[in-house]
Amino acid sequence: MSDLSGRTTIVVGASRGLGHGIATSLAEAGAPVVAVSRSTAEFTAPTNGEGSIRVETADAADASSAGRLLDLHEPDNVVLVAGANPHMRPLQHHTWESFSATWETDVRITFHWLREILLKPLRPGARVIAISSGAALAGSPLSGGYAGAKATQRFITGYAQDEAQRAALDITFTSVLPRMTPATELGRTAARAYAVRDNQTQEEYLRHMGPTLTPQITGEAIVNLIRTQSTDIAPAYLLTGGGLKPLN
Prior knowledge:
Layout: E1 9-12, H1 17-28, E2 32-37, E3 52-57, H2 65-73, E4 77-80, H3 96-99, H4 101-119, E5 126-131, H5 135-138, H6 146-166, E6 171-178, H7 185-197, H8 202-207, H9 215-227, E7 236-240, E8 243-247
Parallel strand pairs: 1-2, 1-4, 2-3, 4-5, 5-6, 6-7
Antiparallel strand pairs: 7-8
Helix pairs in contact: 1-9, 2-4, 4-6
């Protein structure tokens, strides 16, 4: 898996933030990338001239999108990054609609795509990475159902791995849980909200989180994970500015 040339990777949610960094890093590593997003995304050409990025505009949460794009592009790898930005407010100020928004997007996307990947199935040796959140471990009291939704993404990914093994499919599923980062719109919004809640400045709040996780660091981590032997891949990873840490 060290040579990614000719191994198409679909990145779902590639228009901005960590997804954009993942798509860019994969192309720089030589992979043909299909960047899926609801809005038009722009990418610079890979500097090594080997990889490529093709943009597909689609709603990843639509039940028909996963099957259609998998059939169209026949990918070797799939990375799921897309999701909603939760409303940041205390529990009593949420409505059910705002509380459950990430269940209706993030969890829905993971369910539809992993289901279609198992039904198709992808080619032997395929890698499927679902981007969850560090909130699945630590909680997120201002973001409604976000932490529970991200934990469910991790559970669903584990269920998919079990089903792949039961069906003797040579497909590796794993989830990656990035720590909050001011490098994304979601992270900046959350950091502001929690800083106010804790009577801190945003800079003070972020200082306690350690090295900043950037889209570039995220992209390089995903490239390295795809290049890792399947037998060495953990069921889940925490991702910080310092890199990947396996989770049991």
